[in-house]
């Protein structure tokens, strides 16, 4: 197991567990014997990069005075072992993401999070995933190494249930993985992974715990990322954490909460197809603080023309506090970040103008704002 920023002082703290799996020896392109049912899965370049970016953000940026950062547990599987130097000066290689390593790290993370009811426990996973329409299986690097492939996968539902025994009342799970249905899980109800933790008590549901999950993909769908870059979900997640997934906590400080974060990520992942994105489970109540901004927030803004017939000739701009923000291309809708506060949005057309747009003036508030300009 690999732990950074360990702080054993008493009092509430934030404990983070990050897992990124890119190397799978027993899937296509791996160095081992390929499992008989690879399900079209192979090697990934995005998850290790995404996990390292998440580690970097947590180490360098996470700011929660109510629960200061007290540990980061990390596992990353990539061709050559990853290493990292944290802001406290600790430099260490990062253990790979085998299931055995996951069990050890998960137990250590649970134990630390269990030290205080006001602790915040955050779990992040990026890698291959499978599902049966109900349960998600998170594949560790040694998936497929035995004749029971899911022996080396984490049954996420069981893992989340097991965390119900933890005293930490604020838990957040961020799952960046496909949830494509594996037919073998439907045909064999015993073919599923393990939680990696002591079993949860299904007769005693954890009603004292807020434990929302934010997913990158809906049930039965894939998650995506460019090869050699961080995933779409993780990129949106980091923007949400740093810029816009916030509310005004106690009327004075901008704080990231699970519900606001989900809205920000959904707005950034929207592909304008009309299909919903960034599903979540367990978003209840008013949420809790994950991170506080030191600056004013930004807002994810989506500007559209209705109708869009004049788009090719339109110069769409937003003026905020005297500063003009101009659409740099012909993207429609235009998605951008704008500062919190009063804003005027307009569209100008080439001379002689064939169209006119009715400008709008409004107060932008995070995390998300959609603006439609009427064109005639």
Walk me through this protein's architecture.
The longest helix has 16 residues, at 46-61. With 376 residues, the chain is of the alpha+beta class. It has helices at residues 46-61, 99-113, 156-162, 183-187, 232-244, 258-269; strands at residues 2-4, 14-21, 69-77, 83-85, 91-93, 120-126, 129-131, 136-139, 153-155, 170-176, 213-215, 246-249, 253-256, 280-281, 291-292, 298-306, 314-320, 323-326, 334-339, 341-349, 360-364, 368-374. Helices cover 18% and strands 30% of the residues.
Secondary structure elements and pairings:
Elements: E1 2-4, E2 14-21, H1 46-61, E3 69-77, E4 83-85, E5 91-93, H2 99-113, E6 120-126, E7 129-131, E8 136-139, E9 153-155, H3 156-162, E10 170-176, H4 183-187, E11 213-215, H5 232-244, E12 246-249, E13 253-256, H6 258-269, E14 280-281, E15 291-292, E16 298-306, E17 314-320, E18 323-326, E19 334-339, E20 341-349, E21 360-364, E22 368-374
Helix pairs in contact: 1-5, 5-6
């Amino acid at each position: 197991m690999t732990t950074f920023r360990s702080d054993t002082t008493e009092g509430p703290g934030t404990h983070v567990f990050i897992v990124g799996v890119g190397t799978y020896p027993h899937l296509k392109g791996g160095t081992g014997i390929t499992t008989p049912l690879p399900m079209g899965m192979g090697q990934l370049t995005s998850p290790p990069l995404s996990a390292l970016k998440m580690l970097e953000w947590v180490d360098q940026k996470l700011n929660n005075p109510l629960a200061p950062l007290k540990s980061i547990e990390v596992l990353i599987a990539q061709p050559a072992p990853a290493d990292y130097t944290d802001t406290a000066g600790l430099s260490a290689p990062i253990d790979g993401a085998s299931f055995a390593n996951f069990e050890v790290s998960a137990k250590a993370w649970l134990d630390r999070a269990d030290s205080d009811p006001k602790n915040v426990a955050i779990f992040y996973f990026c890698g291959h995933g499978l599902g049966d329409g109900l349960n998600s299986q998170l594949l560790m690097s040694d998936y497929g190494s035995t004749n029971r492939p899911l022996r080396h996968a984490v049954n996420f539902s069981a893992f989340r249930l097991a965390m119900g025994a933890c005293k930490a009342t604020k838990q957040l799970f961020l799952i960046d993985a496909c949830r494509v249905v594996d037919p073998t899980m439907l045909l064999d109800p015993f073919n599923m992974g393990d939680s990696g933790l002591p079993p949860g008590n299904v007769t005693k549901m954890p009603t004292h715990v807020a434990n929302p999950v934010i997913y990158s993909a809906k049930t039965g769908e894939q998650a995506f990322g460019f090869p050699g870059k961080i995933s779409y979900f993780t990129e949106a997640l980091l923007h949400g954490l740093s810029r816009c997934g916030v509310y005004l906590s106690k009327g004075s400080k901008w704080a990231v909460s699970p519900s606001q974060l989900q809205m920000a990520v959904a707005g950034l992942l929207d592909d304008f197809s009309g299909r919903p994105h960034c599903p979540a489970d367990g978003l209840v109540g008013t949420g809790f603080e994950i991170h506080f901004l030191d600056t004013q927030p930004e807002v994810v803004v989506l500007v559209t023309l209705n109708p869009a017939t004049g788009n090719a000739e339109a110069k769409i701009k937003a003026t905020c506090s005297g500063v003009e923000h101009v659409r740099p291309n012909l993207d429609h809708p235009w998605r951008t970040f704008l500062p919190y506060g009063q804003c005027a949005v307009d569209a100008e057309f080439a001379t002689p103008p064939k169209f006119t747009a009715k400008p709008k003036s409004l107060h932008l508030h995070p995390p998300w704002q959609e603006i439609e300009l009427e064109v005639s």
